[in-house]
Amino acid sequence: MTKPLLEMKNIVTTVNTNTPEQKTILNHLNLTINEGDFITVLGSNGAGKSTLFNTIGGNLRVNGGKILLHGQDITQTSEEKRTQFLSRVFQDPKMGTAPRMTVAENLLLALHRGERRRLVPRRLNRELPRFKSLTASMHNGLDTRLKTPTENLSGGQRQALSFLMATLKRPELLLLDEHTAALDPKTSQQLMQLTDDRITTEKLTCLMITHQLEDALKYGNRLIVLHQGQIVYDIAGEAKAQLTAEELYQFFADTE
Amino acid sequence: MNLIVSAIGQGLLWAVLGIGLFLTFRILDFPDMTVEGTFPLGAATCAAAIANGMSPLMATLLATGVGALAGLVTALLYTKGKIPILLAGILVMTACYSINLRIMGRANVSLMGKITLFKLPFFAHLPMYFDSVFLGLIVVTLVTILMIYFLQTDLGQAFIATGDNDVMARSIGINTDNMQIMGLMLSNGLIGLGGALVAQNDGYADVNMGIGIIVIALASIIIGEVVFGELTLNQRLVAVTCGSILYRFVLLIVLQLGFSANDLNLISSIVLALCMMLPVFQKHLNLRHLLKRGLTHD
Ligand SMILES: Nc1ncnc2c1ncn2[C@@H]1O[C@H](COP(=O)(O)OP(=O)(O)OP(=O)(O)O)[C@@H](O)[C@H]1O
Ligand SMILES: [Mg+2]
């Protein structure tokens, strides 16, 4: 269970390199993600959490350090290639789906995540029964809207769909970037619960960014805090289970 | 009667342009100006090839390929060179002007007395203008069927997703650069094909025949959308052809009203602008409601 899945060694990520606005966001960051880890990620605005995800996902190239997957160097692997093992859900409900394509079409696209797209018929009908039962498990009416373009869905439905899409083809690593932040408290809690269910039953390895301390404590087996581009707090297992909100507040008060 | 048949034939031939532009303008959401260069490029290539003795079918295919190449250049400028798509298209369009002059060796090439697709023995016994209707129908049907097939493949779906939301497309492993390159090549290939067909139908290629092409092609897309409203993607492709024919009828009526052929670009722009503003009018004037009231006069 404790085999390392992804290792980040001494990662430096700089944006706007060679311009006056040059800025180092990840500053010699080290992180080892073990197989089966469900890590909640905390950190104030601008701490570099999304940048960490973009670096893992390959949207941003590192300026220093190494990223290893199962011990293999993937630092130079392209964003498209990395989707073979990785999937993500964005904070913005608009980002995760193709608006003019239907719910079923979006799911079908996600089913082939990381694969070469060929000139073969898409065979949507063959997958429909499966999509139907899958969306029904979300209990938010998605299953009745399989043929609806996603631009006509509510934000909550869209995020639930994005989450389904990210887990439809099992990812080795799932990145959730505040995926419930844009939703109302009730919908947000529902999606969090579904997220937790699915991650635990499927034994997915996951990093989840959140600003809700309660959620960070309640879910996952490990908690990390990012501050000024480094991981300043990393707690797992029993120690994490014992951690209280007060202690966490205190820690944040001290790092400011 | 002849005028109507001719309008239908023209509409069918020009529909190929509408379908080509649909791929970039509607699916990729790209304002691709390359088409103003690719259309005369296709015409020039085809005319020069036929004038030099190439068979009309081969010349037409060559024009399609050369059109796709122009699309490739725009696509590379955009995806790899990071030039904004509007400017990339304008650069290639401008360059095409010189290239077209090179290809033809002068400002225009006549196909008088040459064998074109429209003068194949096969069409000889058809009445006047029916050759363009017949050939247009064949080409448009073929292109539409191929497009419908393509868009329903895994590759086609990835292409649509790229135009819809490229961030999402990349996040599920679609190489969006490749999709955009493919789309621009397909689109401009079709525009080149359209240029070749129109040149053969008109009997000449002219270096200035690209002016206003984008407006005409857009008009067929938008007239189709305005007339038919909510449609599925497949139906929308067919609607482009209907829009193209309707547009020819509009031009026919305008010419009958006494305008000259020189006014056509002005009229095309006005027609397109009116169609695009229709939703605004509808909101402000509640046009449908007024029309209904006017017709039922209660
Ligand atoms: N492409 C970029 N260009 C310039 N600055 C950037 C870029 N991406 C991120 N930044 C800056 O880097 C810092 C870290 O950004 P990041 O989005 O990773 O923060 P975050 O921890 O996700 O914050 P939040 O909680 O607000 O989402 C911020 O100050 C941000 O302005
Ligand atoms: Mg963020």
Automatic annotation (TrEMBL), chain A:
<keyword id="KW-0472">Membrane</keyword>
<protein>
    <submittedName>
        <fullName>ABC transporter ATP-binding protein</fullName>
    </submittedName>
</protein>
<dbReference type="GO" id="GO:0005886">
    <property type="term" value="C:plasma membrane"/>
</dbReference>
<keyword id="KW-1003">Cell membrane</keyword>
<dbReference type="InterPro" id="IPR050166">
    <property type="entry name" value="ABC_transporter_ATP-bind"/>
</dbReference>
<dbReference type="GO" id="GO:0016887">
    <property type="term" value="F:ATP hydrolysis activity"/>
</dbReference>
<dbReference type="GO" id="GO:0005524">
    <property type="term" value="F:ATP binding"/>
</dbReference>
<dbReference type="InterPro" id="IPR003439">
    <property type="entry name" value="ABC_transporter-like_ATP-bd"/>
</dbReference>
<dbReference type="InterPro" id="IPR027417">
    <property type="entry name" value="P-loop_NTPase"/>
</dbReference>
<keyword id="KW-0547">Nucleotide-binding</keyword>
<feature type="domain" description="ABC transporter">
    <location>
        <begin position="6"/>
        <end position="253"/>
    </location>
</feature>
<dbReference type="InterPro" id="IPR003593">
    <property type="entry name" value="AAA+_ATPase"/>
</dbReference>
<dbReference type="InterPro" id="IPR017871">
    <property type="entry name" value="ABC_transporter-like_CS"/>
</dbReference>
<keyword id="KW-0813">Transport</keyword>
<dbReference type="Pfam" id="PF00005">
    <property type="entry name" value="ABC_tran"/>
</dbReference>
<keyword id="KW-0067">ATP-binding</keyword>
TrEMBL record, chain B:
<dbReference type="GO" id="GO:0022857">
    <property type="term" value="F:transmembrane transporter activity"/>
</dbReference>
<dbReference type="Pfam" id="PF02653">
    <property type="entry name" value="BPD_transp_2"/>
</dbReference>
<feature type="transmembrane region" description="Helical">
    <location>
        <begin position="57"/>
        <end position="78"/>
    </location>
</feature>
<keyword id="KW-0812">Transmembrane</keyword>
<feature type="transmembrane region" description="Helical">
    <location>
        <begin position="211"/>
        <end position="228"/>
    </location>
</feature>
<feature type="transmembrane region" description="Helical">
    <location>
        <begin position="181"/>
        <end position="199"/>
    </location>
</feature>
<protein>
    <submittedName>
        <fullName>Branched-chain amino acid ABC transporter permease</fullName>
    </submittedName>
</protein>
<feature type="transmembrane region" description="Helical">
    <location>
        <begin position="12"/>
        <end position="28"/>
    </location>
</feature>
<dbReference type="InterPro" id="IPR001851">
    <property type="entry name" value="ABC_transp_permease"/>
</dbReference>
<feature type="transmembrane region" description="Helical">
    <location>
        <begin position="128"/>
        <end position="151"/>
    </location>
</feature>
<feature type="transmembrane region" description="Helical">
    <location>
        <begin position="85"/>
        <end position="104"/>
    </location>
</feature>
<keyword id="KW-0472">Membrane</keyword>
<dbReference type="GO" id="GO:0005886">
    <property type="term" value="C:plasma membrane"/>
</dbReference>
<feature type="transmembrane region" description="Helical">
    <location>
        <begin position="264"/>
        <end position="281"/>
    </location>
</feature>
<feature type="transmembrane region" description="Helical">
    <location>
        <begin position="237"/>
        <end position="258"/>
    </location>
</feature>
<keyword id="KW-1003">Cell membrane</keyword>
<keyword id="KW-1133">Transmembrane helix</keyword>
